[in-house]
């Protein structure tokens, strides 16, 4: 199979991730719950993952909160900062993991920056939209649909200058782009463990520049006499038993990323995607959504004369996995004018190859020739 | 010989402390805080030898590890908080 759906989940994992999951299931019980060997081993394993994430993302280990996924992390962040009916400024490329919590809160949402691959416009729009009564700015690092890299560092500066807390959705950037809680001065950064960090599904991270409010309340193995959640990190946001096998797998994934280097992984993805892009440009009726200045990430969307879902289904029958439709990001499609058509998205990983890129293009030609 | 327990409010803090001591070559044992000194319920502690107690506390303090209190546990006696 040609797996080009890594923006959803990196399906191909480093072997050490699989081994770490298995080892954890054989040797670890619940962290923070007991003083016997298996519990203490779990404590250590979970802390190792916190340390690895903290090192990669410019944070302290206790600022690393484990979540089920990026959606969980972003819900924690959004609901900690935005009050019902409050004002939030978001980019024009946000995922429903941001938009739906805001809708649920009845927030007044201002969308800043609708122009694809135009960071100057994005920044100017944020500068206009971020007012003193803004309770949070929420910005994705990279559009999950188009691979557009937003000017996050400049938006972070703007937020700091105006005293408005920033929430970053790093779902597509974590593991390939520079990202530092300390440098950005963000309130929160949410990310999945199962995409660019190569951990198992069911893992995510919220980096906390401040203590979030809990979404779930329950046992933490600390301050147990109290009926209130502990007020300190990470316990404040980690009720219930941890996903220890997942976290151990995530730790192995983080070490894989750190060993290879995010910049090297990004360079590899871009090199492979460039091969694919050149091939796709030669196919009649294919419209690529790409920046003038070249590829920004390993994500590329296109439309063809066929329905995007039918195209993806036909590719799947030929052994190529991609995602079509709206990618849970209607705001991004609205910004790009593809809300009605949707797009086909290819998204790569450290395991993608140029040979696969050429083969994929051949398969797409075949699909589009079909009546 | 009495033992010393350095208490932490969470396992994450205790892990941080354990790593600091481990890197400095201080022998420790990480475990649950004895109920008799765990006023808030459920916590973790680093148990260290008497000869290492002062050095351990100094290291934790220097690196900002979030320990709470230090207790001396005499064998068969009543634990007592100590200031180091």
Description:
The complex is a heterodimer of chains A (371) and B (84). Chain A has 371 residues and is of the alpha/beta class. Chain A has helices spanning 15-27, 37-56, 70-81, 96-105, 119-129, 152-162, 181-184, 244-260, 262-281, 308-317, 330-336, 354-369, and strands spanning 2-3, 64-67, 87-91, 108-112, 134-140, 166-169, 188-192, 204-208, 287-289, 299-303, 320-321, 323-325, 343-347. Chain A has a seven-stranded mixed sheet with strand order 2-8-7-6-5-3-4, with helices on both faces. In chain A, helix 6 links the parallel strand 5 (134-140) and strand 6. In chain A, helix 9 (262-281) runs parallel beside helix 12 (354-369). Chain B has one domain (3-82): Alpha-Beta Plaits, CATH 3.30.70. In chain B, 31% of the residues lie in helices and 31% in strands. A five-stranded antiparallel sheet of chain B has the order 2-3-1-4-5, with helices on one face. The chains are: A alpha/beta (371), B alpha+beta (84). The A-B interface holds A 31-32, 34-35, 40, 43-44, 47, 50-51, 61-62, 220-226, 230, 232-235 and B 9-16, 18-19, 30-32, 39-44, 66.
């Amino acid at each position: 199979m040609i797996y080009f759906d890594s923006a959803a989940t990196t399906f191909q994992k480093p072997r050490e991730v699989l081994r770490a999951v298995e080892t954890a299931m054989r040797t670890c019980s619940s962290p923070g719950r007991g003083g016997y060997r298996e519990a203490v081993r779990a404590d250590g394993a979970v802390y190792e993952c916190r340390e690895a994430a903290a090192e990669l993302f410019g944070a302290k280990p206790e600022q690393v909160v484990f979540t089920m996924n990026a959606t969980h992390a972003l819900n924690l962040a959004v609901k900690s900062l935005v009050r019902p009916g409050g004002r939030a400024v978001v980019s024009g490329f946000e995922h429903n993991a941001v938009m739906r919590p805001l809708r649920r809160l009845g927030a007044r949402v201002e969308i800043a920056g609708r122009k694809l691959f135009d960071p100057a416009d994005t920044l100017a729009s944020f500068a206009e939209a971020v007012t003193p009564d803004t309770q949070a700015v929420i910005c994705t690092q990279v559009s999950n649909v188009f691979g557009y890299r937003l000017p996050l560092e400049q938006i972070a500066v703007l937020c700091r200058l105006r005293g408005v807390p920033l929430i970053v959705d790093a779902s597509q950037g974590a593991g390939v782009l520079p990202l530092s809680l300390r440098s950005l001065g963000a309130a929160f950064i949410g990310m999945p463990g199962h995409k660019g960090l190569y951990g198992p599904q069911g893992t995510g991270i919220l980096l906390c520049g401040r203590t979030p409010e809990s979404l779930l309340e329950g046992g933490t193995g600390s301050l147990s006499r109290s009926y209130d959640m502990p007020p300190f990190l990470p316990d404040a946001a980690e009720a219930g038993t941890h996903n220890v096998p997942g976290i151990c797998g995530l730790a192995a994934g983080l070490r894989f990323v750190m060993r290879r280097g995010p910049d090297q992984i990004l360079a590899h993805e871009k090199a492979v995607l460039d091969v694919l892009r050149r091939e796709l440009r030669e196919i009649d009726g294919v419209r690529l959504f790409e920046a003038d200045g070249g590829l920004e990430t390993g994500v590329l969307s296109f439309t063809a004369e066929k329905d995007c879902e039918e195209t993806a289904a036909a590719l799947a029958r030929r052994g190529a996995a991609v995602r079509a439709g709206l990618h849970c990001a209607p705001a991004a499609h609205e910004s790009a004018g593809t809300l009605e058509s949707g797009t086909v998205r290819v998204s790569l990983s450290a395991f993608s190859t140029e040979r696969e890129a050429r083969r994929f293009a051949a398969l797409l030609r075949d699909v589009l020739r079909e009546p | 010989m009495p033992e010393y327990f350095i208490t932490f409010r969470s396992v994450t803090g205790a892990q941080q402390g354990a790593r600091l001591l481990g890197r400095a070559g201080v022998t420790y044992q990480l475990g649950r805080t004895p109920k008799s000194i765990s006023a808030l319920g459920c916590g973790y502690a680093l148990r260290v030898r008497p000869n290492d107690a002062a050095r351990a506390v100094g290291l934790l303090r220097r690196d900002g590890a979030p320990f709470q209190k230090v207790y001396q546990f005499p064998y068969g006696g009543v634990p007592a908080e100590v200031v180091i």
